[in-house]
Amino acid sequence: xxxxxxxxxxxxxxxxxxxxxxxxxxxxxxxxxxxxxxxxxxxxxxxxxxxxxxxxxxxxxxxxxxxxxxxxxxxxxxxxxxxxxxxxxxxxxxxxxxxxxxxxxxxxxxxxxxxxxxxxxxxxxxxxxxxxxxxxxxxxxxxxxxxxxxxxxxxxxxxxxxxxxxxxxxxxxxxxxxxxxxxxxxxxxxxxxxxxxxxxxxxxxxxxxxxxxxxxxxxxxxxxxxxxxxxxxxxxxxxxxxxxxxxxxxxxxxxxxxxxxxxxxxxxxxxxxxxxxxxxxxxxxxxxxxxxxxxxxxxxxxxxxxxxxxxxxxxxxxxxxxxxxxxxxxxxxxxxxxxxxxxxxxxxxxxxxxxxxxxxxxxxxxxxxxxxxxxxxxxxxxxxxxxxxxxxxxxxxxxxxxxxxxxxxxxxxxxxxxxxxxxx
Length: 424
Prior knowledge:
Strand content: 15-25%
CATH superfamily of the domain at 223-373: DNA methylase specificity domains
Oligomer: single chain
CATH class of the domain at 223-373: Alpha Beta
Shape: elongated
Distance between the termini: 12 Å
Radius of gyration: 28 Å
């Protein structure tokens, strides 16, 4: 790749002099092939980030073949998008070998031979294109703000020579392949962790003799206890109308507990001195505290994370329980893995009380949850094994973020011609 400064000014900005700027309708055509009622093909849906993927909604509704005659056929390397503007500009290309179906509301189109469809796979997701797409006038109320192909085809796009398109696709797709490999590695490691966690937290390490308890069979050396036997401290947080401005203490809310980790990207804040004279020092979270979500939607019930010391003090909100355990009996890190098991989740579901807009459980009911407890040394070994897998997963996720940043930069440079590729 090399930088080049020979540009021309066009309707869509500066582009390399050798490139065309052309309306989509000159290099693409709409396809309106309806499904033959005898075909029973997979229905695809368009998603913003993943292109065309098998429609889970379709499988949930169990649409039968006789209902599919109104669907549109989409073939390999054809594109589809929802004409409804609220679809956030999602445009997908079908990359599978077999043809499929999309909703009759979708627009299906394909590019002519002078355009590499995979070049447009990337271009149609670029910031420059989407900014133009969203500037299109929306249709009438009857069309629900739709953008049909007649309007879509008038969008001007940059068109490099075909050899340069192919080279750009080759470079960006190499990064895509690396991202896909990373995704598969994360998935495999997560599956390994789930299997190991199920075994280690019920069968332990190297045990041959087991006993029956209320939560299933466990090693003879283990103890089955209720949480109240190991809880040293439990307290819910403070209820206030917190501020988006940094006015004092950052506040941990249930939305900050994600994937069994603390996510501090979207914080609210409260005064260092409470206007109602509550001593906020009683709500400062300490290193190693377990935070449990106990008031929220049913799918968020019981979600936990472990707080680690930050550069400033944090307090927490009323729908979170702050818990400390007797770590001579039960390690916080071991409990962190226990809450990821089906045994824990099923007990949370049983104690949760459903209301109109949210669910909840009480401190008392939470402490009735039963857990099998290995000796401390065995807990440490189990934690060590699972932590190693977590670190591997996190490393791969970080690698994925780096690859995504690389891909974003390449798309900005190569698709605009800011950086040119050498074509033999």
